[in-house]
Amino acid sequence: MGIGGKYKLLLTETNEPLLALPEEIPLRYEIVESSQMGGERHRGALTKLARKWAEARLETPVPPLSNLKMRLIGSDGQEMPGTLYGKVVASVPGSTSRFTVRFTSVPPEIEAALRELSATPATVAALAAR
Question: From CA 86, how far away is CA 58, in angstroms rounded?
Fold first, then answer.
């Protein structure tokens, strides 16, 4: 997947395994269309995580290649600082609400929060090995 023409840029394939999270990470998201934001916000959650991508449960069906603007929700029910952007690359086979999302922009505060929220001995060891 990518763009052609004079740019010839491709998203590289990743073999990085998704790790199941000990608890889902709730989020609010909106679909970004033609760099227009401010659309309807929906609820969802990250269910599996890797460094550059995740599996997400989203409350509304999202077409492949849609761009998402996501805000993670902390344990206090409030949005965490920072905005996570991603592209829906596929739906999970057999599900109408689970999607594979490749991160396109991860600010440092979100990266740290994801690392902390996914911290179990197995996930910490797997993420640290990368």
Answer: 13
Contact between 101 and 67 under an 8 Å Cβ cutoff? The reply is no
Placement of tokens 């206090």 in the chain? 76
In the block, residue with structure tokens 């991160």: 103
Our CA angle for 67, 72, 78, nearest 5°, is: 135
What confidence tens digit (pLDDT) does each residue in 84-106 have?
Answer: 999 999 999 999 999 999 999 99
> Which CATH code of 2.40.10.220, 3.40.109.10, 3.65.10.10, 3.30.70.3270 fits the domain covering 17-128?
2.40.10.220
pLDDT of 130: 44
Select from 56, 30, 46, 54 the least CA-distant residue to 103: 54
Query: pLDDT band at residue 11, thresholds of 50, 70 and 90?
Result: low
Paired tokens of 96: 């109408």
Q: Give the mean model confidence (pLDDT) for residues 31-44.
A: 80
Taking a C-beta distance cutoff of 8 angstroms, is the pair 80, 61 a contact?
no
